[in-house]
Amino acid sequence: RDPGAMATGLGCCLLLLLLGGSAGQGPQAEEGPWGRTRYEAVKKHLGAVGALSKQYWQYLACRVWQEGCEGEEEEEEVKKEESRGHPDWRLLLACEDFLEGFSAWYCSFGKCCKTGDCRIVNNITGLKADLDRQLHGQHLAKEVIIQAVQGFLQSPRPRKALVLSFHGWSGTGKNFVTRLLANHLYRDGLKSECVRVFISLFHFPHHNYVDTYKAQLEKQISETVQLCKQPLFIFDEAEKLHFSLLDAIKPFMAQHGNQADSRRSIFLFLSNLGGNTINEVALDFWRAGREREEISMEYLEQRLQLELLEPSENGYARSHLLKENLIDFFVPFLPLEYQHVKLCARDAFLARGLPYTEAALDEVARMMVFVPKEEQLFSAQGCKSVAQRINYFLS
């Protein structure tokens, strides 16, 4: 708490009241600037200001630190009515605006409000910069994610929650992008009270307990929606979710769900499903001598959806998410090539503050396994084990 800031703000309010009140008494030239009439007027104002300053200090303590809030709601209207009875009530309301502004400023530095909303930052500029600098070989993912998230956040009244489904091989950047999203939307990143992460085999390991999981999941999502106006829900290994769990959260993603208003929510599903289709498309373009940047969403997304709809044991095909078009964007993550692995190795060296050479980056990249067997084109693990390879390289 900063008493200096408090004193400055309250001092401004006092000065406003004194100047406004004394100016409203009419000219007192015959008695001098501090004649008896002016003195009585200022004395009366000081008494009123002293009482009101105490009220506003209590108001500020309640708003910012949640102290002395007992009966605050009942007294709020009484205080405003009393203020309106004061000849300078407009100035007093201006002081309240100052306190509201100070409360918002203070909240930006710490957890001082009942919800996690004061920790939301929505830094799209920073997100785009980090994606451009750190996400390699994923022109489609960059474009779709920025446009989808930015458009959703700028919409004053979205019709439904934003639902993105990330697909591709392991190590292509799905979890990395998820972490970047959380870090740029919330000051506390993945630790934010507005962010909930669910890992299929960790949180819902036994299909015999699906009914219990459904009740728990619905409760956790409802509580987060009530706590935060812009919650983020992440489902990792989504293809391993039981289809009834996906259907249980369907109302939160639908346009007219019966659940708490979740239209400001963001749902992310991460899955290896569809990776083979994505890789086949990338390989076909390479064999045809075309650049991977020529692959378009229109060409790839349709083929990806067809694979997801094929009858299988995955929850996507059996749930209503695809049938009812609740997923807004299927985001493909392309397989990574040799030059992309080198860039990942460079980033890993820089993250540790270590010097590197082109020869060192080549050596790390050559330690990875590349497929198909004939072309040796795509890293089988993407960039997932690059950091561990650097440990081996340095030892």
UniProtKB/TrEMBL annotation:
The keyword Signal applies. Keywords: Signal. This is TOR3A protein. The lineage of its organism: Eukaryota, Metazoa, Chordata, Craniata, Vertebrata. Pfam families: TOR1A_C, Torsin. One of its GO terms (molecular function) is ATP hydrolysis activity. The keyword Chloroplast does not apply. Residues 1-24 form the signal peptide. The gene is Tor3a. Belongs to the ClpA/ClpB family. Torsin subfamily. Residues 336-393 form the Torsin-1A C-terminal domain. One of its GO terms (cellular component) is nuclear envelope.
